């Protein structure tokens, strides 16, 4: 591999975007490409237990670092990963999947090769990704450099995933090394402005007396949290975030009043939205699981919506210069001249006091809130973890990852490992139910092999609590096998000095475990938190009622 090749160029662009590690699973159609990764001294191959985990892990890596890449083989590998990549497009996460494919000669000849349906059709998997709305690119030798540039700049600019097919006969195809000189220019952008859109927003809000800002996930993806805070501060407008978008703004910010979830929000938060005459919905999707089952108390007639998909004022489109990023950045320095009073934040809850009482979900959620300091990233599995913790305000600098829209159980564990790999200087803290963990537990081995040191809270409450509160509280389909979590780390190859396992059943035991975890920064810390089968966060119970009604 002395010549500069298509593979080398692709990896140089990935490296420029921050891809220091590449995830995935080897397969014979991608092995030659993997050689180009492992033979570099500035990039690392991190092999997953399966492709689904690779896609979840890449999603967590990208949320932490801004971009991720994983590699699969044709057919069997990419179909295993398609669930995770679908979650990335649903929740706007910039991930690149590279698929190693049979040679062009094999495909043109229609040979009945492995990992296909044996029908000479090599396009069906590409079409499956296209149908899901994922950007797809099949490299060809004559246009590969332009195709790579277009695909990777799409990811950088749109913050969405893409799927790139690399036929194995192109892996070592030579290209002029001079093409490397243009890589940095690919990601140089010209700042746009949207003066007409800003003027239209000022005019529409001239008589607003109770505005509120609702923040969604796109604010996080485009790093616009500070711009939203500046807009809020300049105009004394209260901010709420959604569970899909939690911590996109600093939740200790003076004008931040809480996380909104429709009418099932705490009333001290809900009234800011319910009483609003103008609602700025910024970078958000108003999905069922973050609006209390579509119970948000505002409609198009009072909403200014700014997102990557559209910009509207009370249902009417913004002027032609509307651009999501430019408009949000423009609002950061905009004075609406409203003369509003200072925002009165809801009162802080009383300090948590631990006792020897059995551990409950409500105590657990408050304790996790206190445990998540500014140098930590909290990854919450969909279910009791997400719904219990999304309503808890986080410390300045803390991050929060969840998947409330796609909601694929098992996501959070590999996503947490991906986040920890992406930024070893931040402690990843996972909270997951034992049912969800069982879907993706295989990559404990990867985490231990890479000597990663997250804190993993496993809620042991006898099954799928999120499903129980929706339907079938006592039905056997919501039961799961009971694992010995104390044996997981050694079973996956951990040495005694590499991990700590702590089982807790009381409030005091949980607090003690958290203090110990903070001291053991050089170890993976696994905490089994035992709770009652029917113990669930109040917002999850309310959401379950709405989901059950919605399913009839």
From TrEMBL:
Alphabetized UniProt keyword annotations: Decarboxylase, Lyase, Magnesium, Metal-binding, Thiamine pyrophosphate
Domain of life: Bacteria
Cofactor: thiamine diphosphate; a metal cation
Domain Thiamine pyrophosphate enzyme N-terminal TPP-binding, first and last residues per copy: 5-108
Annotated InterPro entries: DHS-like_NAD/FAD-binding_dom, PDC/IPDC-like, THDP-binding, Thiamin_PyroP_enz_cen_dom, Thiamin_PyroP_enz_TPP-bd_dom, TPP_enzyme_TPP-bd, TPP_PDC_IPDC, TPP_PYR_PDC_IPDC-like
Ranges of residues in domain Thiamine pyrophosphate enzyme TPP-binding: 397-527
Cited SUPFAM superfamilies: DHS-like NAD/FAD-binding domain, Thiamin diphosphate-binding fold (THDP-binding)
Ranges of residues in domain Thiamine pyrophosphate enzyme central: 199-328
Pfam families xrefs: TPP_enzyme_C, TPP_enzyme_M, TPP_enzyme_N
Family as reported in the entry's similarity comment: Belongs to the TPP enzyme family.
Protein purpose: Decarboxylates branched-chain and aromatic alpha-keto acids to aldehydes.
Protein's name according to its UniProt entry: Alpha-keto-acid decarboxylase
